[in-house]
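Protein 1 of 2
SEQ + STRUCT:
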Amino acid sequence: MKFVDELKWRGMIHSIMPGTEEQLDKEMTTAYLGIDPTADSLHIGHLCGVMMLRHFQRCGHKPIALVGGATGMIGDPSGKSAERNLLDETTLRHNQEAIKAQLARFLDFESDAPNRAELVNNYDWMKDYGFLDFARDIGKHITVNYMMAKDSVKKRLSGESRDGLSFTEFTYQLLQGYDFLNLYQTMGCKLQLGGSDQWGNITTGTELIRRKTGGEAFALTCPLITKPDGTKFGKTEQGNVWLDARYTSPYRFYQFWLNVSDEEAEKYLKIFTFLTREEIEALVEQHKADPGMRPLQKKLAEEVTVMVHGREAYDAAVEASRILFGNNTAEALKALDEKMLLEVLDGVPSASVSAAEVAEGIPLLELLAVKTDMFPSKSEARKMVQQGGFSLNKIKLTDPQAVISSDALLNGKYLLLQKGKKNYKLVIAE
């Protein structure tokens, strides 16, 4: 399996420097990819780069994940309109360890194979590098004209940002270029991988290596992934979709992939899974035959959730979805503990009622039209109940005279109201 060929059919190459394929064909090659350490978890916006590293290792080459501890203290102007917050060393070290633990699900760091993955932090070689030494050793090799020509710099200087570009950020490409030079000299690293917005920074590194050592280095970038409307991939109303279950539950993670469009699902199967071309083509044909069954989305959600959270978490997410969207799932809903119940119902509108009132018993129509706004009036609620269009805790109720008491509460605290197929409200007895 050839790395470039594999990435090409998956739609994962945006730009590639001439000579890169020949270098990879010639010998086991070391490549690195930089990762922003501003949080103690990766999010799915990082996944394309991580998948590139994994493909690289699977093709017999050596991947390096570089945590940008030093550059994280400065801020990369690429693709940003404002300077970002800077981090202290304690936070950086914590984030580095958390990120490595997540990367270990994708990369082999532990074996004695010659192409085992390694994790480095550029803070380790930058922290004691004096400004005068850096200016003399590195700064003199790259002209200001060269740096000004980069798109990331030009955009920030053209007035797209009210704050312009600080000198700190302007030096970013020099620092990233030095990372490449350092890894080239100390670890024989000849290739840098990254998103397409990093092309300017990466080629500064290849140019610095050429001018400083006379050696040759290479660059390969993947496209930046956006949603069909052009907005940032991986962003939802709740914010980023994180790989850490503390920030994005496996259920919500699974639901993100399950709810992408048909067009996105086919594209994401190539980028975010290791299914073969034949397997994906077969799924596409299956989807065309019966789009309603959504085989593309289901397989995508399974592959990515298992890869990130494991089979057990995936099974629990599927069960949770079945409870919420399936039929005859009252017993399964009742069996959920409070944590999983709230994850399943994350995003469902909620209302509060008095626990004391529930203990005394609340007439169903009053609960639906007065205590909550599930229905605009008691008459409309009565009509829907009599027609069999209302369920309480996934059990259909047809008696409008019913009284709801404490024995109906899930986990002694919750009621799940359902109008029609998909209109839910979570009632919390407080």
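Protein 2 of 2
SEQ + STRUCT:
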Amino acid sequence: MGRLTYRSTIGACFAGHVVQAVVNNYAPLLFLTFQREFGIPLEKITVLVSWNFMVQLAVDLISSKAADRIGYRASMVLAHLFAFLGLAAMALLPFLMDPFTALMTAVTLYAIGGGITEVLLSPMVEACPTANKERIMSLLHSFYCWGVVAVILLSSIFFLAFGTVNWRILAIFWAMLPLLNGILFLFVPIAPLLPAGEGSGIGKLVSQRTFRLLFVVMICSGAAEQSMAQWASLFAEEQLGMAKAEGDIAGAMLFAVAMGTVRALYAKFSKRIAIERIMIVSAFTCIAGYLMVSCVADGMIPFIGMIVIGLSVALFWPGTFMIAPRACPKGGTTMFALLALGGDLGCSLGPGAVGAVSAACGDDLAFGLASAILFPLVLAMAIRALKKKKAE
């Protein structure tokens, strides 16, 4: 273990994003199975998604203080332990107690783990003494996308080969990932983001106009991304006439592949293109993508538009994390936690707004998606304001 270096730390952080992809995406693949096997009404099952988000949101609020007190290492080991326990509980508890209560317990456990990793992975990578941090940050966030692809693809192959009746075995298999990665975090070197006591508190951060602009960018990043991502499956069903299972796979997987590809490519070319510039270009590309999916009634153009959105939103979230340490150099872990909170708020706000507008327009999803152009538009304005303030 003495040979472990900061490259090992970065690798563990990459794997941590795959863990987060597992805890966010495995259970939704089983919703119909839960309904059939345990007799749980679908409306109760969908509560699991909302509860997962609410727990992660609460963890966003408290994890920065906890991490500063007990340290990054202990926090990440606990995060992976919670993720392991949650996935294992999902496989075992429904057969020992009320199934819905068991699933809520499992979601609570792994959502705590997911919330901690969401907050800490980026500052841990930022703290590592490496060159070209923008490249590493972009690669870090690409691993969440590849994790989504792996969860959907490997789980689908498993279900085809062995049947969904064996979903508990696969849950235990996925649980091994956070267990092993948590053990790795016991031994990798970990650097502090800032010396003890130098990080800004919440009050000081919120008082800074630069941070408030970053917070707006994060809200819009989450909203622009999830406004399409959360509706991608239904969109694939309606546009391409796919069955529900096929729509889930095609919509979610293609969107994740598009995002992961751009993040990986930016990691290769990050030295040549300023992140602020590419985020503004991406914002207007995103607007074009939303217009494509909402303004054309049939044909492949709406489907291409969905891919364009996936490509264009890819750098919004990691790009904000790249800008933040330069814009607020004393922000510390608290800054990353609050930005993660803003991103999660946007992830809830965007799909909710699309759904509300669609419902108000006679359940027309095209109108709902058209309303989402507001988010990349505001994001572009906020980035321009950040660039202007930087030039002052």
